Structures are given as C-alpha cells and as structure tokens.
Fold these 4 entries.
Entry 1:
Amino acid sequence: MMGKAIVAEAMARQAVSFVLGAATALTLVMLVQYRAPAEGLSSAWTHGQISRSRSSDEQYHRHNETARTVHQAPSVSGDDHDLHQADTILKGVEEAEEFRGLAVAVSRAAMDDRTVIITCVNQAWVAPGSLLDLFLESFRIGDGTARLLPHVLVVTMDPAAHARCLAVHRHCYQHTIPGINLDFFGPEEWLDLVWSKLKLQRRILELGYGFLFTDVDVMWLRDPFKHVTAYADMTISSDNYFGDPDYIDNLPNTGFFHMKPNRRTIAMTKLWHESRSSYPGLNEQPVFNVIKTRLVAELGVRLRYLDPVHMGGFCSYGKDLGKIVTMHANCCVGLSKKMRDLRGVLDDWRNYTMLPSWEKHRAEWTVPGACIK
C-alpha cells in the first residue's frame, strides 16, 4: 500500500508539472502574438517576405550612401563650410534637372585638391581635326601638361558634340540648357549658350570644387597652375595688361580663368549672371569688365591678372618661348582662321622643343597671319 501511494504521488507531481509547463508555453505564445503587430511583424509573413524586406532596407541604405556621396558638399576652407554644405543640399534639389550628373562628372575628373579643368564645346568645335583635337594635342606635346589631361572635363552643348567627345576623351559632360532649341539657333540662343556656362561654373563652386576654365582655342604648352596664387579668389588672363597683376583696369579675358570655391566667388558669379539683364545683347566678358570694380568693392573679391608673357594670346603675347605657358586664339574671328594660326602655334612649339638647349633662346613665334593682318 505504501509503495502504491508513493507511485501515485509521483505521477500526480509529473501531471502538475506538465500542466504548468503547457500553460507557460501557451502564455508565451499568446504574448508574442499580441506584441507582433507593434514590432512591425506578422505571423503571416514568410521567410521570403522577410528576406525581401531586408533586401529593400539594404537598398535604401545604399541609395542614401550614394546620395550623400553625390550631393553632400565637400569640405571647404574656413568659415564657408556650413554655408556650402547647406546651400549645396538645397541647390541639388532645385537644379537637379539642369545639372543632372554634374557632381559625379566633376568628382571623377577633379584633382586631389578638388580642382577641375573645364572647357566647353559645340558640334563645330569637335569635328575631326577641329579645335578640340588641337586642344587635346597641346596637352600631349606640352611640357608637363600630359598629366593634367585626365583632369579636363569637356562640357558639350549638344548631342553631336557629346558623341564626338566620348570618342576622343575620357571625361565628357553634356550640359542640357532649358529653353534652348538647337534646331533654331540664332543670336539670342548663342547668348543663352554663352551665359549658361556661368551658371554651370557657379554650380561647380557650390559643389565645393575649384576650377580653371579654358576656352577650347587655348593651347596648353606648360602648367598654368604654377602661376595661380593662393591669395586670389579669381585669377584671370588679360587682353590688355599694364604690368601690374593687381591693377583693376587691366582688360580681362574670360576665356581663361581660375576660381576658388568660397562665399565670395559664389556671390560673384551670381551677381555677374544677374547683370546680364542690365546689358542686353552683351556676352559675359564685356559685362564682367563693367562690373569688376563693383565685385571687388561690394563682395571683397580678390582679383588678380595673369601676365601675357606667360598666358599669351593673339591680342598680346610674349616673344620668349621659354616663358610661354598658354596661347589663346583671341582677337580672331572665324573658325578656319583660328585653326590655321593655332596649328602654327603647335608647329612653333614642336620646333622649339627639338632645338638643343643652347639654341632655344633664338626661337620665335610665327606671326598669326590669318587672324592678325
């Protein structure tokens, strides 16, 4: 009897333990089901659905990383950092269509110090044997300029120019200008095209990059960055130079200039572009010449001119091939005339580089006879 009682008691304890365990498990299941909606889960989701959710979340984060890479303003010097960062994010939304892809194109071409070389071309200037070919050739045969070629961003103004650019150069960006019909291209459309370059240049500054803008009819024979000072916000070539790089009344040529990214240059390019309406029918160069004193006085822009002994042009150039850095086909109207005389510039340079060192001082430029008579 005693044995039966012990067995019965043990079985009762096991039954109670089983019931308590089952009740606990049932309670936990009910709690989980109750809490599931609050955690954003559903008992009806399958493993595949959860996997798709995780994949979407990863794509979202990758998209955000890409957006930060493209649209976040790079750091700039001094107290301008916060201004550039905030302004760039806003502008990236406002002007995404007009400048779509520009941030990526600039970042790929830029040097380590966030400087990019820019030139602009249309269909006529990129035809085989035309200005773009001479421009690129000058980098290849210049003294220390071949290493700069990977940092040249060619901005194309029409689809045909873009296709040709992609065939001959690594970095090309097609600039779509709202409101311009390239099938009906008249004087007003040409002015819109010219002034659009200034908006693009300002956008590059807003992205936190400096640039050296060069017309495509400028031959690069040596490295011009050696003549750009850290002091100046804008360093610009001159058609009429009076011997002092800080003399405000030197005559500027906007076909070759360097700009640093800061508040002054951004405000300057904005005011410059807005001044177009005050001088109808004029392109950006004469307007800049008129307002340059105001830019310096009101905005504190530090402007400095380049000596034509180094940055020459057909308007004014140094005689010493040992000092020349660039040669611009300015003071010349007509594509065929520019082409003829620029070929002469490259021929003179090749002849100069082939001379022995003791004969180089005798080398002279051939007078640009097609452009200047």
Note: The longest helix spans residues 2-35.
Entry 2:
Amino acid sequence: MEPHAEVPLFEMDEEEDVLSMKSTAGCAHAARALAPPAGVDCDALVYMNFMKSHCCYDAMPTSSKLVIFDTTLQVKKAFFALVANGVRAAPLWDNKLKCFVGMLTITDFINILHRYYKSPLVQIYELEEHKIETWREIYLQYSINRLISITPDCSLFDAIYSLLKNKIHRLPVIDPASGNVLHILTHKRILKFLHIFRSKIPKPDFLQKRINEVSIGTFTQIATVQETASVFDALTIFVERRVSALPVVSERGKVVALYSRFDVINLAAQKNYNNLNMTMREAVSSRACCVEGVLKCYPHETLETIIDRIAKAEVHRLVLVDADDVVRGIVSLSDLLQALVLTPADIHQGSHGRD
C-alpha cells in the first residue's frame, strides 16, 4: 500500500460512539411539531414530530473522525486514505476557491473502476494518475455540480428530507459562520439517535404490525448478483441500479452473502482493483475484514423487531427472506425513514429527485 504519511489530510479525534446529548429539549431553531389533522391517527406523526423538534446539532457525537481531502490530491492516494482511516467519504476542499466543493465517496471509486477498467493486464491509468479535481471535471459533466449540505440548527426532519430527496447517504453539517464541516450526518446516525430516545416518546401501535403488512421496503425488481458473476458485473449493477448493496445468491436463489459498496473500497486495500474478472464467490471469500453472516429478516417479524435489529447491528439494510432463504426483498434505512418520517408529512418516494 502507498505510504500514508504522504497523504495531505486533516482529521479530528477518533469517534466516541456516544451521542452528545447537548439538547435533550430539542434545538431552538428546529421546526415546530405538527398537531394531527382531523381524522389522522396521532401514531402516524410521532416520529415525524420527533425529527421536527430536534436539530442536526443534537444528533452529532461529542467527538468524531473527519477526513478532508484537497482536490489536488491524487485519486489513488485519496481512496487508500479512506481505507486507512476507516471512513467512507470525505469533504473536498478547493484551495483556489477557499471553500468545500463536494464529497469524495466510494461511489466515485466504483464509477472510476466501471468506466475505465479493461482487463487485468491493462493498468487503470485514470485511477493511478488523475487528481481528484481532474476526476471531478470529467464526472461533473454527468452529475450535480454543487455540494449538498445542511447547517447545525436545521431540523433532523430537514436532514432526512435532503438525504432522501437527493438520494445521498452522507450529508455534511457545515457551520454557516466559519464554513467548517462539523460532521457528516448519515441515515444510520439519525436512526441511532431515534433509537436511543425511543423510551422517551410514545410507542406507535403500528410498530407491532408485521413487515409484510406495512409494505416497507423493496419487494419487486430486487437487485441481486449470482455468486458465479464477476466483480465487474456487480459494479455494473451498482452503477445502473444505484443500489448500495447486493445480495449474493446461489443458482437456486438462496442468499449466501451480501456485497456492499463498502466492500468495493477494500479492493484498494488489497490492490485487487485491476482484477475485476474474479467471481463474486472469490471476492466475498477474500474480504480482508471479518464479515458476519447476512443479516436477515422474515415476513412475519414486526416492524419494531426489524428497527431494533438494524439499529443494534448498525447496518444499512436487512435482506428479507422466506423459509428457504430465498431473497424476497430489502428493508433499508432509507425505507424506514421514508415510512416513519416523510410519508406522514405527505412526502413520498415518487417525488424524490436523483443525483
């Protein structure tokens, strides 16, 4: 691996996995909770009102790691630095403009590999030599040309809306006075904040409904990959279907593993990104980190059970399977936040934009 001492980056302290609890009463600038309209069940608004009454600052940890890249850094070194620091994304600083201009994420790594990979015998020049600013000039022709961010005093409801509307997984919290990035807010962090405070808010009756009754999740056109397919095939699905993880299935459709976008970044750690012809079976078995079995859920389980499992395991999704372990759906953090928070506000998936 490249020597990390050469990588120009800034970082804060290691993350303490505790919530700051700075304002148990909620942020002064958070939106006011809504009273239920006539004929609307109060249960439906519980989580929406909770998110409206707390701000992004409330959900920030007391200490966290934040890696920042200058746009003149080589792409390859940047991805190695993500791996070395155990983070999945980093804000990008443009020294000429003197401001943050975007985020470098694992999705960029996937897009570079998918766009430029030819064969194991051909070096990916664009990954080896390009600077971040060069990649941005190429990629931004086909993508959004602005940094999507939020301020600390915005409500968590606004943060969820921004995450889901823009179909992003990381939302920088930027201090409007200094322009500094304070934290990177994620779906996982928001759900964890809700889970910690669950005993202080009313428990809605609908939590006792089975997942197949509430229809929260994806149950049709589920993106999967055969264990005999290549890693490049998986990258193609990531790019075309814009999903964050793929159940790896056997010929009989049984789920045998889960391959996420985060697993792709480990190709950089192992220097395997020039061999995307390897099978998914080989890629899964060669993962450097210890990976637990696929976290599953079943149609008969309640919504409360599923939320608890995702929150405690700190994962982004569960694979819904039947009694034979055949994939029947995916229940993700996005699905849960949409159903619990945005749908009660009459904001639906169909109105969401794309990156």
Note: Residues 75-85 form the longest helix (11 residues).
Entry 3:
Amino acid sequence: MNDSTDGDDNGGPEVRAVRNRGLGEFGCSHYRRRVKLVTPCCGEIFWCRHCHNEAKHDNEKDVKLRHELDRSLVTEVVCALCSLRQPVGDHCCRCGVAFGAYACTLCPFYDDDVSKQAFHCADCGICRVGGRENFFHCDTCGSCYSTKLRGRHVCVERAMHQNCPVCFEYLFESVQPTAVLPCGHTIHSSCLKELERSDSVSVCACCPICKRSLQDNSATWRYLDSMAASHPLPEEYVGWQAEIFCNDCLSTCTVQYNLVGLKCGGCGSYNTRRLALVPAVTRRSGGQNQQEDSQGSMSQSNGTEIVRRSRDQAMHLEERWSSEEDRQLEAYRGSPEGSD
C-alpha cells in the first residue's frame, strides 16, 4: 500500500491475525517496525535511515566514507520475522506479516506506532507526522505547515529547504518540530527556545537570518525610552546624528545619536543597525572624523552595556501583554511536526 494504517482489513480475521504477528515487538530506538531496509549506497541492512546515518555518517571516522541514505532509492527490504529479502512492499510475500501498522511504499516508510498519525504528502514527497487534517502544504514555502498558519504566515521561497540557522540540521527532513518565525524564516522549536533564553541577546531576540524581532517588544522599547531620557549624552556628543537601518520595518532614517540605543523614527524599534555616524562639527580632517567615529563606537558599546543591565528589569513588562497578543504569538509556533 502507498499510504495506509492497516494491511488487509478486507481479508477477514484470519488474514488480519497473520498480518498483525509481532506487532510492536520489532524495530529500533527510532521506530517499531517489522522490516529492515537494504541500503543501496553501501549494500548493508539497517532498521531505518536514522540507524544507517548514525553508523555511516555520524560515527564514521573516515571522512571520505561518510554518507547518508537517500531513502527514495531503497528497492529491497528484509522481513524481520522470516528474514526474506524481497522488493519493497507493505507485507512479506512469504510469511504474510505486515511490515508496519502504517506503511508507505513510496518513501518507503513503516511504523507500528499509529499514534504519531503519519501521512504521506505528495507535494513534499515524504511522510510526515501529526495528522493530515492538521496540516496544509504551502507551495511557496515548499512544506507542510500547521493549519494555524494558513493565511497567517509570511511566505519565503522554499523556507523549509534550508539548514536550521542554529544547529545547521536540514529542516525539511528533520524529525524535530520546527517553528515558523514572524518573518517567515524557519528554525527548530528547541533551537528557538535556546535563542530566546540566550544571554548574548543585547536588545531583543531576533531571527538569526534577517534580524527581525521575534515578538512584540513594545514594553521593552518604552523602557529604553525612559532609559535614554535618564541618561543624557555627554556634551561632546550633543548634536550628533546617526544614519540607521531598522531590522523590523526595513526602513532607513537619520536619528539623534544616543548611547542607550538608536530608535527607529518610523516604527519606534530599537532593533536597528548603525550605518553611519555624523558628528555635529564636520569641518575636521578625515583622520579626526575617523577618530571620532571610533570614539562613538566605544560609547555605543557602553550604551549596549546599559541595555544589557536593563534587560532583566524590562522582562516583567513583557509579561503584561494581553491574552490576545499571547495567542497571536503562539500562532507562530504552529509548525511542521517533522518528517518520519
């Protein structure tokens, strides 16, 4: 069968008894199944692609011999009960046992644990878990997304066909849950949590790819406004301006220089990048201007330290978001549950 959850319901109780022999009793640490794969790349036999990749890639000491299994190239399997080597199918052609309570001969993929709600997505070309009714395929992003994100996510061309920007695992075939960020980029849910908890975050948690904020930081921006008001510029920097690029609204503008942070004149975000520093007096020589810009960079670094110290104090303000904002943020956590 190409995509099934039972081998032969129409064959009667006797056939079902044969098919169900050894149900859940065989398999590896990754899957419960009653069949092994004959890997065409090295001619060896493994329970699943993960077992193969661990042995032939992760634990292979010889770099030249490292490789991963392209599961779509598998044409032969071995029955776990009678050890017969045979073409890919959903049950053994000799002893009749079903290779899995769920069997997909297109991938091929087998699993006796139907609680995962595996299903084959023709557009993705692989089996996924989580229930077909809970996902839709986004043609632009090139993957299955949670129905919570239908019409509510930013499409990025082939967003899932890339490595996680934190751990660098290929996301499209990853078995780990994946989060779709407000900007449309993708990341492992576990890596996202680590990123949000990271002490290296200076102003706010951002997408590792485009640097857009991961959430509504209005409370933090208001706190930084008060910090900027209570930390006036040293006299030598009064009147200085900075040309900035906003990572959140993607605009460029010129603002008054400040040690705490450079606030976007459009959206009010402090998640900005300084492009140029314009001193109040520009008649000095180029060398002097470069020296001033260096001094400004040092002062900006000091301002970053102020933000770091104030970040913990601002955290409690973020907890005051309305329940509606929380629900909107949670919607962005809807994501592919991973492939098989």
Note: Residues 224 and 230 are 10 Å apart (CA to CA).
Entry 4:
Amino acid sequence: MAVMAGSLLQGYQLRSGTFTSARPVPSQARLAVARQGRSLCTQVRADNVLIANTKGGGHAFIGLHLAKQLLDNGHSVTILNDGDEGKSKGKAPFSQYDSLQQQGAKVHWGNPSDSSAIPSGDFDVVYDNNGKDMEACKPLIDAFKGKVSHYVFVSSAGAYVPDGIHAGLKEGDKRKESAGHVPVEQYLHSEGLPYTIFQPLYIYGPHTAKDCEQWFLDRILRDRPVPIPAPGIQLVALSHVEDVAAMLAKVPGNKAAIGQHYNICSDRCISFDGIVKAAASAAGQEADIVHYDPKKADLKKGEGFPFRTSHFFAQVEKAKADLGWQPQHDFLSDIKQLVEEYKSSGRLEKQMDFSADDKCIACAK
C-alpha cells in the first residue's frame, strides 16, 4: 500500500519528509522508504486482522500473544473469542484482554461457527485459532471465502502420523485422516483460499490455560518424586508462546506463505529427564526421577504425565527460510523465570491430587 507525503493512514502521517504520528509508531511496523526524484513514497502495511480464538486448552493464549504482536506491527486487530465472557473474563489468558483493548484491539465474544457472531467489517487477514474440525471451521471459512488476502488455520502437529522411525516431524509427512484438523486443511485447499496452515507442538509461557512446566514444578517444589515414562531420554520441543505468535505474525503481506504448511516449535530439543533436571536446578533442589512403564500403569485417559510418552519434536527450517523467523527463547534460558512465576502464582499453596503419580511409582517397583 503506497502512501504519498501528506496523506494519513492508520494514524500515521508524513509531513515535510518526516514521519510523524498521532500515536506512537510501532517499533516493528514494516516501513520501506524510497526516494523517486522529489517525491517520497512510503510503503506501509497495516492490515485489518480478525482472530477467532478458542475458549480453552493449550492454544487459548496464542490468540492473546498473537494480537500483541500484530498490534505492535501496526495492524488493526479484532478478536472473536469462543465461549461466555462472564465465565471466562477472570481466567487466563482472557483476563489480559483489557490490555489489548487499551492498545486499540476490539474484543467480541461468540461462537465463531455461528455466522451471526462474526464481527462486521472488511478484514484482510483471518486467523482461525479456534476450530479443530469441519463443524467448527467450515462456517468461518465460507464466510470469508473470496474476501480476504490471507486465511490462517492453526492446526496441530499432533495430526501427524507417528511412524516409529523418523523422530523429527517434517512438513509433508503423512497426516492422520482420523484427525479433525485434516479435513479442514483439505477443504481450505479445495476451495482455493489463500491459506497458510501452522502446526504447533508443546507451548509454554505467560497466561497459559494448560499445564506444561507447571506439572513438573508441582512435584519438584513439594519434594515429591517425578514419575517419568521410561526411559526418560525421549526428546520434545518446548516452545515459548511469544515465538509461536511471532511466526504467526509473519503472515500478513507474505505471499510466500500462501498454500504452505509450517511447523511451529523451538529449534532445540530437551529430554523428559532433562526437563526435570533443569527445573530442579533452577529451583535449587535435587531431581528425584522415577521411571515407569506407561503400559503397566493403570491410568485413565488424561491422568498422569502431561505429554505423549514418545519423542515429539519437529523441523522448522522451512519457516526460517520462507518467513525469516528465528526463535528468541529456549527452555533452559527461561526456566528460572518460570520457577519464579510459579512460586508467585500461589499454586504452591494449593492442594494437589497425586494419586496418579502413586500408581506410576507403584508399578515401577
């Protein structure tokens, strides 16, 4: 979008060859200035973005951090959050929405699969960080078909088919036909939308609604043994939510991303045992690890260890090359701060149910 000197765009104004604004210029706004004779032409990308955000789970705080990144980059942001505002507003990450609104974001509550809940207006980019199947995703896709320059679907690396041979997942690896995300991905392609699909792995960071390092700290800071699926050397990628949001925020204006799939994760791996040892060291305590056979533990679905019991990491070279993305965090550098945040959260004073741990420890003997 070319803006000649003296015109106004999104609150930013050029006067007498200088760039002034009615509000602070975002530090990361993409500006390209080219002099042609006596005229000064400034290329400014300021898209109108809609984020459909989920009401819970491990992806809920992606919407919060993505909105922050986009606002800092100079875009206009509207969030359509699934769920009930009254029930959700006091919980993480939604308790932080006031800060987004102070930055200029608009927040609506309603079911993104209900066309009547979709905010009015012309949007350039849509992010679906809500749906996991066709029932939830198709209405939003259909509503913006032929109307947006970019449609982004936040899928999941969990939809890959584990082959038991290649540990590092790569874009193009076989996807599970049984996973609800896959028909959505196929529909975006068949309908000819200018789509990009992202596949996150495990995510940590502020304002999460799902445990990651917290599960380990629950035990370490209470001097309890930490039951780990044997052999404990399984590798995982733990990604900071700011890095996840930063990759997603690379989409507006990036035509190279259209029609592509990208993994989102840290480019460093850590073992299950390594997580325990790093967290214990940061807390100034000894790690007490008990290895158990998951097949022998009598656990119900959702009980026990918070991750898959196998390797789970992916390659991210494609995103680095196409999007110019580089992670700014790694778990070992962040763990001290994560320990302090856990201690200040008040969670250490809460009663925890460790009955599943006791089953795992018992079967290890």
Note: The chain has eleven helices and 21 strands.
